[in-house]
Amino acid sequence: MSPTTRKWTRIGFAGPGAIIVAVVTMAGMALWLPGGAAGIDNIVLPLVLVPLIWALLFFHACLDRKLARVVAISIGLLVLHGGLVAHKFLDRPASTQEAHP
């Protein structure tokens, strides 16, 4: 890979890539975090942690020497949490009642 391509790949994963992965991770976290006593902790905690997740992804993309590791971690988080969100919205219970005209 040429140095120019490596530079732009790193910029893509540090800039818009980090934001997209952080937002998708926030949406997925709401599905696997416990609800807490009030039942809203699984929603509030990901919202509070989004800046931290974004900062971790940004600095990881900027500082890691191996670009392949940056790509693997970012895409892994995106696929994992995106899959959780997609499964949540596509998981519809089957209708067991017959329609009567």
Keywords:
101 residues, elongated, single chain, mainly alpha
Q: How many E-type strands?
A: 0
Give the radius of gyration: 18 Å
Measured between the Cα atoms of the first and last residue, the distance is 65 Å
What's the number of structural domains?
1
Count of separate DSSP helical elements: 4
Given helix and strand content, the structural type is: mainly alpha
Overall pLDDT metric = 89
Strand composition percent: under 5%
Quick summary:
With 101 residues, this protein is mainly alpha-helical.
What do you see in this structure?
With 101 residues, this protein is an all-alpha fold. It has one domain (3-89). The protein contains four helices and no strands. Helix 1 (3-14) packs across helix 4 (67-90), helix 2 runs antiparallel to helix 3 and helix 2 packs across helix 4.
What is the topology?
Layout: H1 3-14, H2 16-32, H3 41-63, H4 67-90
Helix pairs in contact: 1-2, 1-3, 1-4, 2-3, 2-4
